[in-house]
Structures are given as structure tokens and as C-alpha cells.
Amino acid sequence: MGETAATLNLPIIDLSSLDRISTSNSIRQACVEYGFFYLVNHGVDQDFMKQAFEESAKFFSLPIQDKTKLNRKEYRGYTPLYAEKLDPTSLSKGDPKESYYIGSLADTTSASLNQWPSKDLLPNWKPTMESLFGKILSAGNKLLSVIALSLDLDEDYFDKINALSKPEAFLRLLRYSGELGYCGASPHSDYGMITLLMTNGVPGLQICKDKLKQPQVWEDVSHVEGAIIVNIGDMMERWTNCVYQSTLHRVMPTGKERYSVAFFMDPPSDCIVECFGSCCSESSPPRFPPIRSGDYLNERFKMIYGSEKELKSSIQSN
Ligand SMILES: O=C(O)CCC(=O)C(=O)O
Ligand SMILES: [Fe+2]
Asked: How far apart are CA 157 and CA 144, in angstroms?
């Protein structure tokens, strides 16, 4: 646990660059080599990010009974300390973090499933989080068009499959207790298409570039003020026939409380994830059969959370 890790210099991608070909080449290189990169000039300004972290801290500082009233249902709401274990093989009692999920606002059915703290307790919370959702989504949408280019697809590819107008996006607020001895988030790769991550600057995030190499080598992802950290998820790895890698990562404790916001972007659940034509050939045939995006994600979620019934009993026993 206490071993020192080297710090990585991940590529920095400028989303405002007008040279989209060179940007898409850099993205390709970053996704092949690391599965992770920094995104700058993404349109989420730093003052607003700070405000969102302040609102997030206000929620997590509420008395536990106010928070558990909003316990996660339909993948939305509050998950208490230790209730989640990202690495099901770990012997720990669960990851020392709390989180709060907000689901897509893109359609009324999905938006109506969201839970919100009462206005009396936190008057600015809902508007701040809705605005944060919209801003990160629009950065993610712009990024996906350059990712499409980087894969030799039409730049509106993800738009055409409705990934942009009807994304299965989730915003997840996180607070790590920082307690020493346990991983804040145990080693995992994200399940979906892409993840956009912001942190409050407290270190802890590490990646393992080669998941098959033993012993594993972990490297620190340092904080770059104002940048969003982007990583490739397993579904994108599958879509690209492993040309892009979904990289193993974890959050190590530093003894300090740490906040982050993760934004998971997935295609609509009825989208068929089938190897991109540009990622296979006769000598490199598709490694995975086609699968519905929703089926794939449900399976992955079940492995982490079990059923809602199991979640309830784990909350009661904490
Ligand atoms: O908080 C972080 O820095 C990483 C969070 C993460 O990896 C996740 O929620 O999937
Ligand atoms: Fe993750």
C-alpha cells in the first residue's frame, strides 16, 4: 500500500483547437497508450467547478439520516460509506467513500427518477447539479465527435446512434473519507463508453497501464488545475476491438478527505455495440460478439452492487 508511485505525464487534449485532425491523432495515441488523458478548454469554467464542489460538500456534510432518506433507487441517489466494493475479489468491508448518482436529464422519464435533497436544506443544490450535468454533457458530446474522427468514423457517428441526444449519462458525486489502509476506490476499469472526471485537487488517483503485468505497476495521475481527466471504459474497449484500452485505476487514501465528480457517458440502452469496421480486419477479427449496451451495463452493475435488496442489508449493517 505504502509504495511510492511514479507520476505520469498524460497527454493534454485541447478541446477548443480548430485543428481537429491533429486533435484526433493525439486522442488516438492517448487512448491506445494510456486509455487516459487530460482535457482542457472544455467549457466548464473553474469558478463554476468550485461552486459545484462546495454544493457537493454541503450534501455530504448533512446528518446521515437526511442522506439515507435519499438512498439509491433505480441507480439514482445516495450510497453510504462501505456499501460499494469496486473490486468484488477484495477482502475489505467495502470502499471508504460515499457517493450520489444523478441520472440523465435528457428525457422526462429518466429525469423523473432522480432524487434531490429538499430545497429547504440545500436551496442551490438542484440547479447547480443540473447545470453541471449540462456543461459536462456538452463537453462530452464535443469530445465524442473528435473521438469518432480518431477512429476513422464520421464525426457525427455517436450523434447518429443517438448517443448524444439520448445518452445514458450519470453524474456521480464522490467523497472519500481518506482513511488510511483501504483503497478509496479499489482497482477497477469503468464499464461504459467514456468517463469525464474532475477532482478537488487532493491526490490519490492512480492507473495501471498494463493490467496483465505482474506485479502491477501503479502510477500517479497528478492534478492539473481546471483540466478534466477523461478515460476510456470497457464498452469502448470492446467497441474498438481493444484498440483503445480501458485502463485499470484506483484511488489511494492519503489521510485527507477527497472529493471528485465522475460523469459516465454511455450510448442508449438499445444501441448494439458491435466492433467498429475501422477496428477489425481479416488478420484482426472481432474479439467479442455484438451486445445491447443496456444488457452489457446491467450485467456489470449487478456484479458490483448485487441486487437492491443486498444494498439495503449492507446499509443496515454499517
Ligand atoms: O474519484 C476518482 O478520482 C475516481 C473515481 C472513479 O474511478 C469512478 O468512480 O469510477
Ligand atoms: Fe473509475
From this structure: 9
Ligand 1 atom closest to 86 (CA): 10
Phi/psi at 108 (5° precision): -65, -35
- Lookup result for grid cell 483503445: 244
Please report the ipTM that was assigned to this predicted complex.
0.99
This prediction has a pTM of: 0.93
**Closest atom of ligand 1 relative to the 190 alpha carbon:** 10
- Ligand 1 nearest-atom number relative to CA 221: 3
| Tens digits of residue pLDDT in 270-292 | 999 999 999 999 999 999 999 99
Residue bearing the bigger pLDDT, 259 or 105: 259
Domains and CATH numbers, the chain: 4-305 (2.60.120.330)
φ and ψ at 32, to 5 degrees?
-75, -40
Considering only CA atoms, which residue is closest to atom 1 of ligand 1? 260
Q: How far is the CA of 249 from the centre of ligand 2 (A)?
A: 6
127 three-state secondary structure: helix
Give the tens place of pLDDT for each residue, 201-220: 999 999 999 988 899 999 99
What end-to-end distance do the CA atoms of the chain give, in Å? 24
Cα distance between residue 96 and residue 88, in whole Å: 14
Residue-averaged pLDDT of the chain: 91
Cβ pair 225, 12 in contact under 8 A = no
